[in-house]
Design goal:
Elements: E1 80-84, H1 85-91, H2 96-101, E2 139-143, E3 167-173, H3 178-181, E4 188-194, E5 200-210, E6 217-228, E7 233-244, E8 267-270, E9 281-284, E10 287-289, E11 297-298, E12 306-308, E13 314-316, E14 324-325, E15 333-334, E16 340-342, E17 359-374, E18 377-392, E19 400-406, H4 414-423, E20 427-432, E21 441-461, E22 464-484, H5 489-496, E23 498-501, E24 504-507, H6 510-514, H7 529-535, E25 542-563, E26 566-585, H8 587-590, E27 622-642, E28 646-659, E29 663-675, E30 681-692, H9 696-700, E31 704-713, E32 718-727, E33 735-747, E34 755-771, H10 775-783, E35 794-795, E36 803-808, E37 810-829, E38 837-853, E39 862-863, E40 875-884, E41 888-897, E42 907-908, E43 922-923, E44 931-943, E45 946-953, E46 978-986
Length: 987
C-alpha cells in the first residue's frame, strides 16, 4: 500500500512546472514499496505508480519530497515513503489522515479519537501528524510543498481542511529536513501533492457505521478539471462534505456507549507509603472513589457512609473491598487504599462518560487557476476554504468532592438532620458526581481561508535550464470554542448553601440573593430549573481565536556545471513568513479586566474578577506575532560514476534563519547515496542539524486551562478538582536537534524483479527542548522536597477559588530517540497461474529508546520507548496484501504493536520492595499488552469507470487493553469493528 521513489540508473526528464520544494528521492528504486519502470521489464516487475498527465511534470516524471534539488538524476539520501492515490483509495477512510497515521513511523498523531477527554485544550478533533513520536509540533505538514496556516495556536494545521480528493500522493520524509524546509521539520515532513492539472470529473460517495450501530458516517466528494485556450489555461476544483456522528459517552458507572464492555475502571492508586516493603503504586480494576457518588455521599465524620438516591432518600453506601467507614474526620475506610476501594457500588463513577470519538463535520472547497504565460512557465492562483466542526463530551457529570454542607440546610432529609443532632455536629463533608446537572459538551468550529498566488517554470540562462518557483501565501484560521451545560463554581457554592427565610428556601448569602442566586438541592437528583439556570447560564465559556500566516518564497534550482561523474546541481532561495494570533474569551473565564462583563455575561459580585469561574473551560485572552527571514543553499555533487565501483553523490544544504523573537539560528545537512556495483543495492546516509522555533502558543499564549477532575493531592491524600494553567514564555529559544540516518536498500534487482527491501537506522538528539513539567511532577517535586521552587506554582486547598497548578514552558529538557525502519514489498504477476497481480507490502519501526530528560535537579531521564500509555511502542508494523484481478480486487491489512509498560521508571515488586523514590517508584503491575488489528476490503468495477467498494476495519472487533488512563487512543482502537461501503466514479 505504500510506495517509494525509484531513481537508479536513469534520468528524469527536465521539470517544467513541478515545484522545487517537492524535489528529491528521485529515480532509483528505494526501499520503497512501489517502483517506476525505467525500461520494459517482465510482467512480474510491474507495479502501480501515480499517473502523470500532460501539464504535470513531463511524462514519466515523479519528483518526491526530500530536497530542494529539482534536476535530473538526483538521489536524495533521506528515506522517503510515498503513499499514492490508489493506496489512499484502497484504505477507504473518510479522512486521508487516518490512512497516513497508520504508518509505523508516525507515532503520537492526533485525530478524532484523541483529546476527547479535554474541555479546554482546543485540540478536540484536530488531525495533525507526529513522526518519530516527537509530537505534532515537530512534524512539518505541507500542501504542495507550501506551509499551511495553523488550526491551533501550536501552529499545526488540520489535515481535515485539505482538498483530499485531489491528493495524488503523500510524501513522508522520515528524518530531519530543517535545512530544506525550515523550522518544525525535526521529526520529518508530510507533504500532500495535489493533481494541479486534473482533467475530467471524479467523485466518491461513502457510508459507514460501527458494529455497535454508532459513528454513522457519510462522505461525498466531487472534483473536476479542464483545460482551455489550447491547453494554456487549467481549471481545477473540488468540494467535499463529510459527517461522522462520533461515539458519545456511556452511562455513569462503567457501561460504555452502545454495549461496549471493555472499560474496567482500572486505576493507578498511590498508597502514599514509600518504605514498608510493599509497592507504592498498585493497579486495580473496578476502582471506587470514596469521595463522591452519583447523587451524593457523606464522606467523613460520624455520618460517613450515608449516600442518597435520586429521590434524595438516604441509604448505606456499599463500599468495595469490604470497606468499613471510620466515621472520623479523616474520612478513611478500612480495607480500602488511600481514597479508593475495589468493587462495591460503582454507579457514581464518571469516566465512562468520555466520548470515544469526537463527532466531526467537515466542508471543504478548493479551486486552482493556472495559465501558461509561455511554454514551461505558469502563473497560478489557488483558494482553499474549509470548515471543520467537532463536538465531544469530556466526562459524565461535574463531580465535586470535598464539599461542606450544613446540617440545617433545608434540603437535608429530616432523618439525617436528626442524626446530626444525635452526633453533635452542625455540618458534614460531602461529595457528589452531580449527575442531576447533566453532562458538559465542547463544540469547536474551525474555518480556514487560504490563498496562494505564484509562478513556476523553467528558463534557460547561458545554455543551462533553471527551474523557479515563486509564490505568496495568505492564510487565516478562525477557531471558535464553546462549552455548554457547565457550572460557575462560585455560583454553585452559593447555591448549595441554602437556608429558610420567611418559610422559603433561599441562598444564605444576601448579596448572592440580590444577584439572582437560586438555591440548589444536590442531595439526590431533583434540582429546580431556576437553580440550574443560575449555576449553568445559557451562555457558557467561549474562546474566539484568529490566526494569520503570510509567506513570500522564492526557490531556484539548476545544474550549472558538468563534472567528471555528472552535473553539479544546486538550489537556493529565500522565504519571509509572518505568524500572528489573537484570542478573546468570555469575562467569567478570562477575568473582568481582560473582557468587560455585560450583555450575556453580566457583572456578578459572587464571581472572581480575575476569572477562572467556570468548572472547566476557563479560556484567557492573548495575542502575539513573530516574523521569520530565511535563506538556503543546497548542492548535490556526483563524485563517482563507474561500472566497477558504482555511482555515488554527496548532498549538502545550509539554511540561515532570523527569528524576530530569538535571533539567528543555522540548520544544515550533509549526506550521500552510493549505488553499489552489486545489482539493486544502495547505501545512503545523512546527518543534519535541525531546529524548531517556539510557536505562538509557547511564546505568547494566554493561559490554556485544563480541568483535572481527579487530581491526587499527596499532602492530604485525597483526589481534588484542580485547574491546570499553561502560560507562555517570550524568552524561549529554538530547540536544536541532531538527526542521523544510515540505511541500505535492495531495489528491484534483475534477479528478483518486483522485490524491494530496506533497512534504515536513525538517531535523533534534541537539546534545549521547550517543555513544561506535568502538573503531577510539579506537585510531587514539592511534596518530595526535591525542588522546593515548584511549591509556589500550585494551590490544592484554595478557599478563594478553584484549586490550580501553573505550568510554564522552558528550554530545560532534552530528547533522545533511536531506532530503525524496515520496509519490504514484492509484486507477483499471475500468482499460481491466476490472472492479475498479488502485492505483498510491509513496513515496521522499532524504537530502541525514546528518552526525555527534564533537565531538573533531582530527576533522571525517562525512557518512553515501550511505554504503552504513550505513543512509542517498541515495535509497530503494518502489512498489506492486495490481489488485483483487473475488474475486482481484494485487500487484507494487518496492524500490530508490541506489549509494553505503564511507565519504564517503575520497579515491579509485590513484596520485599525497595524504598520507593521519585526516580524509581515501585509498582505491583507494570504491563500493558500490545494489540493486533485485521482489516479487509474489496472492490468491483461495475463498468469501466464506476467502482463499488467495501471495507471492514478491526474485523475481529478487538477491544483496547485495560488502562489506568481510561484508554490510550494513540495506540489502541476504542471504536471497534467498522463497516464502510461506497462507490467511486470518474469521467
Amino acid at each position: 500500500m505504500f510506495e517509494h521513489k525509484r531513481d537508479r540508473r536513469r534520468t528524469l526528464l527536465r521539470t517544467t512546472s513541478i515545484r522545487l520544494i517537492v524535489a528529491g528521492m528521485a529515480m532509483a528504486p528505494l526501499p520503497a514499496l512501489a517502483q517506476i519502470a525505467a525500461e520494459p521489464q517482465p510482467q512480474a516487475a510491474e507495479t502501480s505508480v501515480p499517473q502523470t498527465r500532460p501539464g504535470d511534470a513531463e511524462a514519466g516524471e515523479i519528483i518526491v519530497t526530500g530536497s530542494r534539488i529539482a534536476v535530473s538524476g538526483f538521489n536524495a539520501p533521506t528515506p522517503t515513503t510515498v503513499l499514492g492515490e490508489e493506496q489512499i483509495a484502497a484504505n477507504a477512510q473518510p479522512n486521508v489522515f487516518t490512512t497516513i497515521s497508520q504508518l509505523p513511523s508516525l507515532q503520537g498523531s492526533s485525530g478524532t479519537q484523541v483529546n476527547t477527554f479535554s474541555t479546554s485544550s482546543g485540540q478536540q478533533g484536530l488531525s495533525s501528524f507526529s513522526l518519530r513520536g516527537l509530537g505534532t509540533i515537530r512534524t512539518l505538514t505541507l500542501l504542495d510543498g507550501q506551509r499551511v496556516v495553523g488550526a491551533n495556536v501550536t501552529g499545526v494545521p488540520d489535515v481535515s481542511l485539505f482538498p483530499q480528493l485531489l491528493v495524488k500522493r503523500v510524501d513522508i520524509v522520515n528524518g530531519g529536513a530543517s535545512a530544506s524546509y525550515g523550522s518544525d521539520a525535526v521529526g520529518g515532513v508530510v507533504n500532500f501533492i495535489t493533481d494541479t492539472h486534473f482533467t475530467g470529473i471524479r467523485g466518491n460517495i461513502q457510508g459507514g457505521i460501527t458494529t455497535y450501530g454508532d459513528d454513522a458516517t457519510g462522505l461525498v466528494q466531487l472534483a473536476g478539471g479542464t483545460s482551455a485556450l489550447g491547453g494554456r489555461l487549467h481549471l481545477v476544483g473540488s468540494a467535499e462534505y463529510d459527517k461522522e456522528e462520533g461515539i458519545g459517552g456511556g452511562e455513569f458507572g462503567t457501561k460504555l456507549a452502545n454495549g461496549r464492555n471493555w472499560f474496567t475502571q482500572r486505576s493507578l492508586i498511590d498508597r502514599g507509603v514509600l518504605n514498608d516493603g510493599m509497592p507504592q503504586f498498585i493497579v486495580r480494576d473496578w476502582a471506587q472513589s470514596i469521595t463522591f457518588t452519583k447523587y451524593g455521599l457523606i464522606t467523613a465524620g460520624p455520618l460517613q457512609g450515608i449516600a442518597f438516591d435520586q429521590a434524595g432518600q438516604p441509604f448505606q453506601f456499599q463500599y468495595g473491598s469490604n470497606g468499613v467507614p471510620s466515621r472520623t474526620n479523616s474520612g478513611a475506610v478500612s480495607g480500602c487504599i488511600s481514597s479508593f476501594c475495589q468493587g462495591g457500588d460503582l454507579s457514581g463513577n464518571v469516566d465512562a462518560g468520555r466520548s470515544l470519538k469526537s463527532a466531526i463535520q467537515r466542508v471543504n472547497g478548493y479551486g486552482r487557476v493556472g495559465f501558461d504565460i509561455a511554454p514551461d512557465n505558469e502563473l497560478y492562483f489557488t483558494a482553499n476554504i474549509g470548515q471543520v466542526k467537532t463536538n465531544n463530551q469530556p466526562v459524565n457529570g461535574q463531580n465535586r468532592p470535598g464539599l461542606t454542607l450544613q446540617c440545617a440546610n433545608p434540603y437535608v432529609p429530616a432523618l439525617v438532620q436528626q442524626a446530626c443532632a444525635t452526633a453533635g455536629i452542625t455540618s458534614f463533608q460531602y461529595g457528589t458526581s452531580n449527575a442531576a446537572l447533566g453532562n458538559s459538551r465542547v463544540y469547536t468550529d474551525r474555518r480556514q481561508y487560504r490563498f496562494v498566488l505564484g509562478g513556476k517554470g523553467k528558463v534557460e540562462v547561458a545554455g543551462t535550464p533553471w527551474t523557479y518557483d515563486i509564490y505568496g501565501e495568505h492564510g487565516t484560521n478562525y477557531t471558535d470554542i464553546d462549552v455548554r451545560n457547565i457550572m460557575l463554581t462560585r455560583r454553585f457554592n452559593q447555591a448549595i448553601d441554602a437556608t429558610t427565610l420567611n418559610g422559603t428556601i433561599v441562598c444564605r448569602d444576601a448579596t448572592a440573593r440580590a444577584n439572582g442566586c437560586q438555591p440548589l438541592n444536590i442531595i439526590g437528583g431533583n434540582p429546580s430549573a431556576g437553580a440550574l439556570a443560575y449555576i449553568m447560564p445559557e451562555h457558557g465559556p467561549y474562546q474566539r481565536t484568529r490566526q494569520t500566516q503570510d509567506v513570500a518564497s522564492i526557490n531556484i534550482s539548476g545544474s550549472p556545471l558538468d563534472l567528471w561523474a555528472g552535473p553539479l546541481s544546486i538550489a537556493f532561495g529565500g522565504e519571509y513568513r509572518h505568524e500572528y494570533y489573537k484570542v478573546r474569551a468570555d469575562p467569567y473565564g478570562a477575568g473582568f479586566a481582560a473582557t468587560a462583563p455585560g450583555g450575556d455575561y453580566p457583572n456578578d459580585p459572587a464571581l472572581l474578577t480575575t476569572g477562572n469561574n467556570w468548572y472547566a473551560g476557563n479560556y484567557k485572552n492573548g495575542s502575539g506575532a513573530y516574523s521569520v527571514k530565511e535563506a538556503f543553499f543546497e548542492a548535490n555533487l556526483p563524485f563517482l560514476n563507474s561500472e566497477k565501483l558504482g555511482r555515488a553523490n554527496l548532498n549538502g544544504a545550509v539554511r540561515v534563519t532570523d527569528y524576530s523573537t530569538s535571533g539567528t539560528v543555522w540548520a544544515w545537512k550533509i549526506g550521500g547515496t552510493w549505488d553499489l556495483p552489486i545489482d539493486g543495492f544502495r547505501i545512503r546516509g545523512v546527518t543534519s542539524r535541525d531546529v524548531r522555533a517556539p510557536n505562538l502558543s509557547e511564546l505568547f499564549a494566554a493561559p490554556v486551562t485544563t480541568t483535572l477532575p481527579n487530581f491526587f493531592d499527596p499532602f492530604n491524600k485525597v483526589n481534588v478538582l484542580a485547574i491546570q494553567n499553561s502560560i507562555g514564555n517570550t524568552a524561549l529559544k529554538p530547540e536544536i536537534a541532531r538527526n542521523t540516518t544510515v540505511g541500505i536498500a535492495l531495489a528491484n534487482p534483475s534477479w528478483a524483479r518486483g522485490l524491494n527491501l530496506s533497512f534504515d537506522w536513525y538517531k535523533i538528539k534534541i537539546d534545549e527542548v521547550i517543555s513544561s513539567l506535568a502538573a503531577t511532577d510539579i506537585v510531587q517535586l514539592c511534596y518530595q522536597k526535591v525542588l522546593p521552587e515548584t511549591c509556589g506554582a500550585f494551590n490544592l486547598s484554595n478557599t478563594a477559588g478553584p484549586n490550580f497548578i501553573n505550568v510554564q514552558a522552558f528550554n530545560l529538557a532534552s530528547i533522545r530517540t533511536e531506532g530503525f525502519d524496515i520496509e519490504a514489498s514484492y509484486r507477483w504477476a499471475r500468482p499460481l497461474g491466476l490472472p492479475g497481480n498479488l502485492t505483498l507490502r510491509a513496513l515496521a519501526t522499532h524504537v530502541i529508546n525514546n528518552i526525555t530528560d527534564t533537565g531538573l535537579p533531582g530527576t533522571i531521564p525517562v525512557d518512553n520507548a515501550g511505554n504503552n500509555l504513550g505513543a512509542t511502542p517498541h515495535w509497530k508494523w503494518l502489512a498489506v496484501q492486495t490481489y488485483d484481478a483487473g475488474r475486482f480486487s481484494l485487500l487484507v491489512q494487518e496492524r500490530w504493536f508490541s506489549a509494553g509498560t505503564i511507565g519504564n521508571q517503575y520497579i515491579v515488586c509485590q513484596s520485599n520492595c525497595p524504598a520507593s523514590t521519585t526516580k524509581y517508584p515501585t509498582i505491583d503491575n507494570n504491563y500493558m499488552p500490545g494489540s493486533f488489528y485485521l482489516d479487509v476490503g474489496a472492490t468491483f468495477d461495475v463498468v469501466k469507470d464506476v467502482t463499488l467498494y467495501g471495507k471492514i476495519d478491526n474485523l475481529l472487533d478487538r477491544d483496547p487493553a485495560p488502562s489506568t488512563i481510561f484508554n490510550n487512543p494513540a495506540l489502541y482502537d476504542q471504536i471497534g469493528r467498522v463497516y464502510r461501503a461506497g462507490v467511486r466514479f470518474k469521467f
